[in-house]
Amino acid sequence: MPQGGKQYILRKNDLLYPELSFRINGVLFEVYRQMGGGHHEKYYQKAVVLGLLKEKIKFREQVYVPLKFNDKIVGKYFLDFLIEDKIILELKRGKMIPILNLKQTKQYLSTLNLKLGIVASFTQEGVVIKRIINEY
Question: Is the pLDDT of residue 3 over 80?
């Protein structure tokens, strides 16, 4: 039990964008079911595009996001996907999702003032999905 004696129970209502997240996860699992593991990230990205289109999920791919300081661009990001202007979806491959990738997604969320990111890694054993929450 957490400090202070409070017990937290996660309910579906507590999840950010539960229906949309469920549909995105369905696309990711279907891509893995049909393709399996071990392919280059760019091939998973192409398959995810087809899956999102099939499910009629609105998205933008390779979204340019400028990083600014004092109103000057000091860097740039390219998101794999921006889903319905609500959720960032980043694709990876390999067994482990490095903490750097999770932190990078958190930076994307902060920069765009969004609440939810999903990082999906395609492995030999399946697809690993991590939800990243921006608590601003």
Answer: no
